[in-house]
Known about the structure:
Blueprint: E1 7-8, H1 14-21, E2 26-29, E3 36-37, E4 40-41, H2 45-54, E5 58-63, H3 70-79, E6 89-91, H4 92-102, E7 108-112, H5 115-123, E8 128-129, H6 140-147, E9 154-159, H7 167-177, E10 183-186, E11 192-193, E12 200-201, H8 203-214, E13 219-220, H9 227-234, E14 243-247, H10 250-260, E15 263-267, H11 274-282, H12 286-289, E16 295-297, H13 303-310
Parallel strand pairs: 1-16, 2-5, 2-14, 5-6, 7-8, 7-9, 9-10, 10-13, 14-15, 15-16
Antiparallel strand pairs: 3-4, 11-12
Amino acid sequence: MYKQTCTNILSLSPVEVKKWLNSFDSVITDCDGVLWVYGNLISGSSDTINYLKKMGKSIYFCTNNSTKTRKELLVKGIELGFNITEDGIISTAHATAAYLKNRNFNKRVYVIGSEGIGKELDAVGIEHSGIGPDVMQGTLSTFMSQHLTLESNIGAVVVGFDEHFSFPKMTKAASYLSDPNCLFIATNTDERFPMPEMVVPGSGSFVNAIRTCAERKPTVIGKPNPAICQTLIKQNKIKPARTLMIGDRANTDILLGYNCGFQTLLVGSGIHNMTDVDQWKNSKDPEDKKLIPDVYLPKLGDLLPLILNSMTHGSY
Ligand SMILES: [Mg+2]
């Protein structure tokens, strides 16, 4: 319905809104930039999600943010008023650990990332190192000759969001990756965080730095890789054509929807907005066309009044 037209839902009649709401049973929503920004609720988002759940839609949170475990995301979601369970959370830290576990990985992991990844690896019994500060000591030559030590038995380098990203970490990661048998895994490639007044580098910035010096391409676990939703589809928990993907970033969220055959809703409360969509509509690059969502709203909270209004036009 409204396939890749970027139709503004605010322009639909109550009957059309009702028809659209009846076209999906499951909702997969991004978190940062859709539900909250830097820990602060985006107004109306929890009421809207909880209402969709009350209507019988199954709700999944799907975040590329690798700094938190599923349990920590659950606590945060509940604190902000969302009616969710741990089963309903898909996170890259968890998915990365599951990816390694499913391959019967039995070596150590060098992590450029945060505690969230470490805790999820711990939970599946995979040993790791690298999390936390690793600052440059001395000059390049003293660092190389006296301070640089490489561990043996590293079988994978995982790169996610790391606020302690440094020259020594780059050197170690690229050195481990010079062994072609060492896996190179990126939790996600989001370029930056949705912040209104400054630029906060996202995991993709670190991934690309390692990718450049390692001269290798990573396996990307998070959105837009459809693998992140394959379990839900395989276990028949969602039907792609009757699933709505909600996101604020087109090259991860909307592209994931495109890749999985979901319906898509772009909200303008984070990274991308209507101006970006207009550019993709006018672009000659076929890749840009994949970023155009089916429907659009300035923010998710705008949906609740439309749902309530549409209810006066028959039951659901
Ligand atoms: Mg987002």
